[in-house]
């Protein structure tokens, strides 16, 4: 790390693993606390940042879980609970955005037919935003600040980061491949959503090891990001279909038709991209990544 340069949000070859994990958590938590305190960020943006960062940090915890099961158990649960505290707020925003996106993609007639559904879901989002969100954000801030204060006392595994490649990252990569195969063999909302969660973990862990070979691993992380977006939009549409099933407003039939058609497109793209991202077996992937990391650390 060059003197005076900003501390990176990834692990550094040659750095002690415990130091790297604490550094990343410290940077992310400080940024989140500043975001919650800022008057320049809207509440929707703050909720999104908290939930997105919680997912990144939970992926980091998965790396060190074999050597720090207690820390993983407690902190992972804390991050999960913080995200769940704001889940309904985020879901309301996503539902409104999802149906609006369908309307934007549709032709003029279909887009107009969706207007009542768009209006209803936008109204629900507004009701949620005015229903105590400030209190939930305050609670989230308090819990994040407590985590930041406790960070120094965490019992984390020491030694080189390469130690968690086979154990921590290997588990994530292997689960992502298995969840993909299950989703392709038994396509349901649940199997595809489980695949998406492991893809997100794999993407974030790839970003943590990006210093092994930035040009190559940044590309892999970008492809996993694209895959996660496809799976995420598919899941949002599945939730939307469930939400409108019992709505008594005009436009729901059009909404269902457009959502089902879009899901078919997304799943075709995800199948093609996923099989490419996970073409390499886990053991071969780990051998390759470990070799790159050792080279970057000066230990060929």
Uncertain residue segments: 1-5
Name the helicity range. over 70%
Secondary-structure element pattern, one letter each: HHHHHHHHHHHH
Percentage of residues in strands:
under 5%
Number of strands: 0
Q: Termini, distance in Å?
A: 20 Å
Main sheet record:
none
Walk me through what this model shows.
With 300 residues, this protein is mostly helical. It has twelve helices and no strands. α3 packs antiparallel against α7 and α8 runs antiparallel to α12. The chain is globular, with a radius of gyration of 21 Å. The N terminus is likely disordered.
Question: Which short descriptors sum up this protein?
Answer:
single chain, 300 residues, mainly alpha, 0% strand, globular
What's the topology here?
Elements: H1 17-37, H2 43-64, H3 69-85, H4 87-105, H5 108-113, H6 115-129, H7 133-150, H8 163-185, H9 189-208, H10 214-244, H11 252-277, H12 282-296
């Amino acid at each position: 790390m060059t003197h005076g340069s900003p501390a990176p949000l990834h692990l550094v070859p040659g750095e002690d693993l415990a130091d790297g994990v604490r550094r990343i958590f410290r940077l992310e938590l400080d940024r989140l606390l500043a975001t919650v305190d800022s008057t320049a960020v809207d509440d929707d943006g703050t909720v999104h940042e908290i939930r997105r960062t919680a997912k990144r940090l939970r992926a980091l915890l998965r790396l060190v879980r074999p050597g720090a099961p207690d820390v993983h158990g407690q902190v992972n649960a804390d991050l999960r609970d913080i995200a769940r505290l704001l889940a309904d707020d985020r879901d309301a925003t996503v539902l409104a955005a999802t149906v609006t996106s369908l309307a934007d993609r549709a032709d003029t007639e279909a887009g107009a037919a969706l207007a009542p559904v768009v209006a209803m879901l936008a109204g629900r989002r507004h009701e949620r935003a005015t229903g105590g969100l400030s209190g939930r954000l305050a609670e989230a801030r308090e819990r994040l600040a407590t985590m930041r204060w406790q960070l120094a006392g965490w019992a984390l595994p020491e030694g080189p980061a390469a130690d968690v490649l086979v154990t921590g990252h290997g588990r994530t990569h292997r689960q992502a491949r298995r969840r993909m195969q299950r989703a392709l063999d038994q396509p349901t909302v649940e199997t595809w959503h489980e695949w998406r969660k492991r893809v997100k973990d794999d993407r974030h862990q790839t970003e943590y090891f990006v210093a092994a070979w930035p040009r190559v691993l940044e590309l892999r992380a970008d492809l996993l990001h694209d895959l996660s977006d496809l799976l995420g939009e598919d899941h949002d549409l599945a939730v939307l279909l469930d939400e409108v099933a019992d709505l008594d407003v005009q436009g729901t039939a059009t909404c269902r038709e457009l959502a089902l058609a879009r899901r078919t497109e997304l799943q075709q793209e995800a199948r093609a991209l996923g099989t490419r991202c996970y073409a390499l077996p886990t053991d071969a992937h780990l051998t390759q990544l470990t070799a790159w990391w050792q080279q970057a650390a000066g230990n060929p």
